[in-house]
Design goal:
Length: 81
């Protein structure tokens, strides 16, 4: 399988919200004014895409609940004023 075919397969497994988030992240990463991505950053993106493709993800709300329990206090303010 080619790299492009693998990317197509990963993207086809995303719902619209996940695809929109990924597209935004990719556009931000492609910002010509920003620093180039190093090997570590690229490897991290690969791991994240693999996790998404394997459905190993949780919602932001679940993450925040788990983090709050681990820290033992209110840490995340999700309200927008």
């Amino acid at each position: 399988m080619t790299v492009k075919e693998e990317l197509h397969q990963l993207i086809d497994g995303l719902d619209d919200e996940q695809a929109r988030d990924l597209l935004e992240d990719l556009r931000d990463a492609a910002d010509s004014d920003g620093p180039p991505l190093d090997e570590e950053a690229l490897a991290s993106l690969d791991r994240g895409l693999a996790d998404i493709a394997a459905d190993r993800m949780i919602s932001l709300e679940d993450f925040q609940r788990r983090d709050q329990r681990a820290v033992g206090k209110e840490r995340w303010d999700t309200s927008f004023h």
